[in-house]
Write a structure and sequence with these properties.
Blueprint: H1 2-9, H2 11-34, E1 46-50, H3 53-66, E2 75-78, H4 79-85, E3 93-97, H5 105-118, E4 129-133, E5 136-139, E6 142-145, E7 149-151, E8 168-177, H6 182-188, E9 195-198, E10 205-208, E11 214-218, H7 237-250, E12 259-269, E13 276-280, E14 285-289, H8 295-310, H9 335-357, H10 364-373
Parallel strand pairs: 1-9, 7-14
Antiparallel strand pairs: 1-3, 2-3, 4-5, 5-6, 8-11, 8-12, 9-10, 10-11, 13-14
């Protein structure tokens, strides 16, 4: 959301948001160390690879655009320099920046829950909140009253009464291989443990885990009609198959390695793709969310910002440009479902066209999908 923040608050404010997010990566690492949370954290940065000429052209344009902003710190690397760090089949270049860390999210959240309980917080699991009104959170076990209530429900926000069109629950899925042998890592590298992404329109993301698996993710089934949300992590067979095929295209030496795990979850996507945090002083209702999948760092920054807002502290955090930002609501069904399905079908078609054409030009199909999706 940086460009949107710049438009509403000025370039310096948007740059401050970038800087604070960068610094928050280290803050998360420091909290984990301070609280004794072993979450397999390694700050190796993030690498995004291009695997065809169109992706490489977008990568170069992206790096050039980011270079116009402070605190972005991107390095463009050609095919040879990329292969010295991480050998992805077909990679013709990559961009790397240092402001990212690998983490095991389940270990992190369990460790944070234990730390909160040590501090005296009571966590009520298995309690469904159906509605938030000023001073009251309505649950299936009764109503909880508080002067301040924070809605930080991300992809599950659509289940709250009155919030059905606030955030779109975007599905995301991952698979994990069995542990890979030393011979594989000798051939592939990845010694820096940087997280991995690409420049496809339907992009992927991956990490080398602490026990030497590859955890590899992507969209799968992006959205269910009427913002239906799965809660059990079940992953469709066709999603597992497509992610497995892509993983093996990236790393052919892993073709015979079995897939041990698969799971799915939901992201919260605001209509303008810009995260926000805020507190309505009149109602006592705060909110944070819309991270679109990059929330491990952003939730920490949002939490500290909300603390300052609730306690009425005039701090740099309380003045960041995402504070008080509100996106317009998503379209009603069936427009919402039709738009998401159309967008992702178009992006997949664009990726196929670019992979086969050898052209440096981004597919016109992707440009059309971008117009429907809006700025992101």
């Amino acid at each position: 959301g940086r460009e949107r923040y710049a438009a509403t608050h000025g370039r310096d404010a948007a740059a401050a948001q970038q800087r604070m997010l960068n610094e928050t990566v280290d803050e998360v690492i420091a909290v984990a160390a301070r609280e004794g949370i072993d979450a397999d954290i390694v700050k190796g940065g993030e690498r995004n690879v291009a695997r065809n000429p169109a992706q490489l052209a977008r990568l170069r344009a992206f790096v050039d655009a980011e270079a116009q902003w402070p605190h972005t710190d991107l390095e463009l690397q050609d095919a040879a320099a990329t292969a010295e760090r991480l050998r992805v089949s077909g990679a013709v270049g990559s961009a790397w920046h240092p402001h990212c860390a690998r983490v095991h999210p389940a270990k992190l959240v369990r460790g944070l829950a234990a730390a909160a309980e040590r501090a005296g917080v009571v966590i009520h699991e298995g309690t469904t909140v159906s509605q938030i009104v000023p001073g009251v959170a309505v649950t299936d076990h009764g109503s909880v009253r508080a002067g301040t209530i924070v809605r930080a429900t991300e992809g599950f926000t659509a289940d709250l009464r009155g919030e059905h069109r606030t955030l779109l629950p975007m599905n995301s899925s991952m698979i994990a291989t069995a542990p890979l042998p030393a011979s594989f890592w000798d051939a592939v590298g990845w010694d820096g443990r940087e997280t991995l992404g690409d420049l496809a329109h339907v992009y992927m993301y991956a990490q080398r885990t602490a026990d030497d698996r590859i955890a590899f993710g992507g969209r799968g089934v992006p959205y269910r009609y009427a913002s239906h949300v799965d809660t059990d992590g079940t992953t469709q067979a066709r999603t597992i198959e497509s992610l497995t095929a892509l993983l093996r295209a990236f790393f052919p030496d892993a073709a015979d390695v079995p897939i041990d795990h698969a799971w799915s979850g939901v992201l919260g996507v605001p209509r303008d793709w810009s995260a926000s945090v805020g507190l309505d002083a009149a109602t006592g209702i705060g909110w944070a969310g819309g991270y679109v999948g990059t929330g491990v760092t952003a939730t920490n920054l949002a939490g500290r910002t909300l603390a300052d807002l609730v306690l009425r502290r005039d701090t740099e955090l309380a003045r960041l440009p995402w504070v008080g930002h509100r996106a317009r609501r998503w379209e009603p069904e069936p427009l919402r479902w039709t738009a998401v399905q159309t967008i992702y079908a178009a992006y997949r078609a664009a990726d196929r066209a670019e992979a086969s054409s050898g052209s440096e030009r981004t597919s016109v199909i992707a440009h059309a999908a971008d117009l429907i999706a809006g700025p992101h």
